[in-house]
Amino acid sequence: MKKIIPYGKHYIDQDDINSVVDILKNKNLTQGPTVLAFEKAVANFVGSKYAVAMSSWTAGLHMAYLAAGLKENDKIITSPVTFVATSNAALYCNAKPIFSDIDPETINLCSKQLEEKIKNIDNIKIISPVHFSGLPCDMKEIKRIADKHKITIIEDAAHALGAKYEDGTMVGNCKYSDMTGFSFHPVKSIAAGEGGMITTNNKRLYKKLLKLRSHGINKLDDKLINKELAFTDDIKNPWYYEMQELGYNYRITDIQCALGQSQLKKLNKFIDRRLELVLRYDEAFATFNNVKPIQKKYRKLSSHHLYVVEINFSNLEINRAKLMTELRNEGILTQVHYMPVTSHPYYKSLGYETCNYKNSVDYYNKCLSLPLYYSLTNDDQSKVIKLLKSLLN
Ligand SMILES: *Cc1c(COP(=O)(O)O)cnc(C)c1O
Asked: How far apart are CA 120 and CA 117, in angstroms?
């Protein structure tokens, strides 16, 4: 069988295995101390006051939107070039996602168009900037716009754990936002199997997220509402807890957090190697006109979740489907990130039209994600480059 080179892949070493085994042998499987330890490690890494871990970042988006007070007839605004979860979570809240086009240079939300849209649409409660491929959005500008209209900012940093803003500080420190979320799906920066984390500096949001994560039941020092049932002779009843709002079971296990914690220790090493590979690709394509890497000017800031190139297929004999098939025949897997969310049948059925987002459509027609992951060898990468060049010549 041919060796497969996927577009992305997690990396597990013996330390990861040992951390998980230690949980299985000695500790709580869920709701134990490892969840808190992982939360503290991430908060410490990005420089936020608080962090809340949950079963996935999709669950996290739902909770973050709820915590921000999103409800029926409210709106969120985000980029069409994202994974469907960013806007789906607004639909969970019976709110309406609004899309604003990307900047073709960064593939992130275009601040100018964002500002125009926000001026002309009522009830926008949340902006969800997506740091595409790990390149942070222009958060200073987005914050200026949001502050002007009193809009909450929730950063979708699923691609951007370990990325840096222009000022050199870490994505997730919530300097420019109310909450920031990360994903630990195996294809993302670090793996927990499944998992997500929200960081915030706001204690009220922190406490709200803890409650939403576990059925809406009181946590920490939440004031008990039903005093008569809660206390005997002014002392809290030992069995007593109360559900104060409608929450969910969006908890993550200690097993997953043990893996996440041990993976986090390797994150800098992961990103360094990704950057090395990115620069090798850049160099290989520097004099090859048929392939244009995206975000090339911003290599120092990104966490390099993906290596995306734009290929102008309209000038070539080969189309994208054929190219991907030819690559696959040689064991090289590529992917498209992303078809605009508005092109999915479900969004079409809600009346969304992709033609309104010209830059997103142009980008979608050209983009291709090439293999990029920590354990990709230089030799395998060279094979990808050589084959791609020969197919596009
Ligand atoms: C992966 C991803 C999500 C969802 O994260 P999960 O942990 O898989 O639920 C949301 N937004 C973006 C941009 C993503 O890439």
From this structure: 5
Q: Tell me the two tokens of residue 59.
A: 């669950």
Q: Cα(224) to centroid of ligand 1, in Å?
A: 35
Q: Are 56 and 191 in contact (CB under 8 A)?
A: no
Q: What would the pLDDT profile of 332-355 be if each residue is shown by its tens digit? A: 999 999 999 999 999 999 999 999
Atom of ligand 1 nearest to the CA of 187: 1
For ligand 1, atom 8, the nearest C-alpha belongs to: 185
> What is the number of the ligand 1 atom nearest to the C-alpha of 195?
7
Cα 228 to ligand 1 centroid, rounded to whole Å:
43
- Residue given tokens 């220790």 in the structure block: 265
The residues near 297 (Cβ < 8 Å, ≥ 6 apart) are: 105
pLDDT tens track for 183-208: 999 999 999 999 999 999 999 999 99
Strand ranges inside 163-275, DSSP E: 179-183, 196-200, 231-232, 235-236
pTM (two decimals): 0.98
